[in-house]
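Here is one chain, start to finish.
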Amino acid sequence: MKRGHCVALALAAGLALTPAAQAAHGGAPSVAFTEPDYLKWLIDSRQPVVVIDLRPAAEYAAGHPPGARSVPMAELDRRFGEIPTTPMVVLYCRCSIEEAATAYAFLETRGYLNHVVLQEGHDGWARRRFPLVK
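Its structure:
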């Protein structure tokens, strides 16, 4: 890869990954986030990324980002093995930050170090009118 591309990729990653967030009540673990614009860039430029939809299967079927895989939050404890440990994994749902943080922490306890949560979740993706597939 050319040096300019590496620098651009590093810059994009640095700008897209927001600092870890902590819930105000202190109960939720720290979570790494990424922006919908960055995820779209990853998908459009065919970068290695795995997108995991934590919503119920019916919501996934109604529309999801291209290439997203359905692993509903209610099934995460028994299906987490379907989520690879490389490359980058982006988790999203239509849920509270605390719920997303719980899924994030669960994967962290299983040895995952490659995951982030999509800032604004599915709603942020859809609000930007990014592509949804059924």
